[in-house]
Write a structure and sequence with these properties.
It is built from 3 helices and 12 strands, in the order E-E-E-E-H-E-E-E-E-E-E-E-E-H-H. By secondary structure, the chain is an alpha+beta fold. The model has no long low-confidence stretch (mean pLDDT 91).
């Protein structure tokens, strides 16, 4: 885990925190995990949220410390194309590292009621293309939207593919 990130108690349960102040565009950690299919993630039941979508039909079962990362509608971090968690603003020592789960979601299956407490909390975490356009544009500007999402939403027929079926 290194000296920069520790797992600690958060208002959400557990979370990951930085031990030092970090400027924007700092790589915090590499996200790793076991490859999974959509069907395998659904079979996890309550632990389905431990997986992260990395392709239209591809997921990983994320490992610690990233496993304990929490969502915020006003995140201080994001996930880049290399599956690295990076800062998108200055983060103070001791601050919880959060990211917007929607930047890795395009499946029409999983949602989460949000209690992040941000001034402009969206109330529900859902697929990237369903969040407000100005927020999509902000995340695209920061380069923290996974490439499969960018490619898919440019293709008008992406939503017609049967990638969201548990069959």
């Amino acid at each position: 885990m290194g000296e920069t990130v520790v797992i600690g108690e958060s208002k959400f349960g557990r979370g990951i925190f930085t031990t030092t102040a970090l400027p924007p565009d700092t790589v915090i950690l590499k996200i790793t995990g076991r490859p999974m299919s959509f069907r395998e993630t659904v079979a996890l039941g309550h632990h389905e949220s431990h997986s992260m979508q990395i392709g239209l039909q591809d997921y990983i079962l994320v490992e610690a410390p990233f496993l304990f990362s929490n969502h915020s509608c006003d995140p201080n971090c994001g996930i880049n194309k290399d599956l690295e968690m990076i800062t998108i603003k200055t983060v103070a020592a001791g601050e919880e590292l959060t990211w917007d789960y929607s930047t890795s979601m395009l499946e029409r299956h999983w949602t989460l009621k949000c209690h992040c407490g941000a001034a402009f909390c969206r109330g529900i975490v859902r697929d990237f293309d369903l969040i407000p356009l100005h927020i999509q544009n902000k995340y695209l500007h920061y380069n923290i939207v996974l490439p499969f999402i960018i490619d898919a939403v440019k293709n008008p027929s992406w939503h017609q593919q049967e990638v969201f079926s548990v069959r």
